[in-house]
Amino acid sequence: MKKWFIAALFTCGFAHADMLDALKAYENKDFAQAQQQFSALLPLGNELAAFNLGAMAYQGEGQAPNLTEALAYFMLAADLKHTQANDLLQKLLQNATEQQVEQAHQRFEQLKQGVVIVATDLDKPRSDSLPQPIRRVNPDYPAEAARSGQFGYVKLRYLVDEQGQVTAVDTIDAYPQRVFEKASIRAIKRWRYEPSGQKHLMTVRLDYSLGVGVNISAVEQTVAEHNLWTYAIAGSPQHQLALGMLLSLVDIQSGNGFRYNPELPLTAAADFSIFKKRADLKPTFDGFWGFAEVRVNQDGVITEELKTEFEARSEVTSLVGLTLTGKIETEVYRLHRRSDLQNRGVSVTPAVEASRTMSGLYWWEQSAKNGNVHAQRIMAAYDRQWEDYLLAQQDAEVLAWAGSRLILEGERERGMQFLEQAIAQNYKPAAEMKKQFM
User: Fold this and answer.
1) Which run of H or E residues covers position 218?
2) 412-424 and 428-436 are packed helices; what angle lies between their axes, rounded to 10 degrees?
3) What does the pLDDT look like over 81-129, one tens digit per residue?
4) Beta partners for residue 170, in sequence order
5) What is the DSSP string of 322-342?
6) CB of 290 within 8 A of CB of 127?
7) How far, in Å, CA of 55 to CA of 34, rounded?
8) Residues 339, 347: Cα–Cα separation, whole Å
9) C-alpha to C-alpha distance for 304 and 312, rounded to whole angstroms
10) In the beta sheet, which residues pair with residue 193?
11) How far is residue 3 from each of residues 54, 64, 124, 209, measured CA to CA in Å?
12) Model-level pTM?
C-alpha cells in the first residue's frame, strides 16, 4: 500500500523531540522511536502525528497490523482537520466489521480526551481598560544592526505598578533574535503611565526599520534565501517559527488589516502581493469607540457589520448606513479606536482576505504543535490552552507571567506559588514580580 507520510527535510538538529525527529526516526525504520514521538505530539492537537500513527498501525510498522487502531487514529486526524484523513477513513471503513468500527469509535473517544490543544479563534480585538502612557522613550537602534541594514521587531510584556512605573519586562518574541531585545527592554523600563492605583500586565510591539518601513521585497528575499517556506511546508518547526516571525513583521508593517479565512485552501507558495499597501479611508461620522469589521459598497456606504465590539463610551451603536470616504480598494474594512489611545481618531484600514498560510500566527501554531518550545511560549501569550499546557510542563517563563496574572485576578496563593516555582528555575523577571506583590 502507498506510504502516506509527508516527506521531510532533515537539515537541523534539536535538543528535544519534535516532528522532524519523529519523521527522521520513521525514515530510519526506528518505528518504536517514531511511534513514541508521534504519540508525544498528540496532546498538542497535531493532526499529522495522528495521521502517521494511523498509517503505522494499518501498515504494521513496528507492530502487528491493526485496523481498529488505524481507524481510531484516522478518526482523530480527521477531527483535527487533516486534509486527507477523512477520505482515507471512509475507504477503510468499507473493509471494517461493525465490531471493529464500534471499538474504533471507543478508542477515538479515548484518544480525543488526551488532546489538550484544540483549534480556537485567536483573532479577537482587545477591549480591556489600560492606563494611559504619559512618557514613551524610543529605543536606540543598535549600531551594528543599523550598519548592516537589519530590520525587525520585538514584542514584549511588562508589569506596570500602581504609580505607572514599569517594573518587570521580558520578550514574547523577536525577529531576528538577540539583535533588538536589549534596546527594547531598556526603553520600556523608562516608560511611564498615568497612576491608576492598580497593577497591570501589558504588551507592546516595537518595530525597527531604516527609512519608510520594512521592505517587503527584502523579506521575500530572506524567505527565499533560507528556504523558509519550503522547510516550513515540509514540517520543520524551527523554520515554521522563523517564517511566522517574518510574516508577523510584514503583516503589521504593511498597514493593511488581514482576514485569514480558514475556508480558503492552504497555499503551496508564498503570496507577498497581499502586503501591498492599500489606501486607508476616513469616517464621515463622529462618536465611534471600539472595534468593527464592516462591508462597504463602491460608494463607501457601510452595508454590513461582520464583527463589532463597541466600547461603553461609544455614541455610535450601529454602523450600517454610515459612510467612509476615500479610494475603495476592497470590500471589507476595519474600524478601530481604543480608549487607551484617546488622542487618536478612528483608524479605517483595508481588511485583505488571505489564506492562513500567510499568517505568522498560523506558522507559530504549526511550530508549537510540532514541538518547538519557543513557539509554544509565543502561543501561550495568545491562547490560554497553550499557557495551561506549559504550566503542566513547569515552564518557568509561563509560570511567572501566569502567576502575576492570577494574583491580579485575585488568586494570590496560586499565583505566588507559580512565581516561587519560576524563581527556583532562575527565571530572573520572576524575582522582580514577586517583589512587586509582597
Assistant:
1) helix 216-225
2) 150
3) 898 999 999 999 999 999 999 999 999 999 999 999 987 766 544 445 6
4) 157
5) -BEES---SSEEEEEE-GGGT
6) yes
7) 12
8) 13
9) 21
10) 133
11) 11, 17, 40, 46
12) 0.84
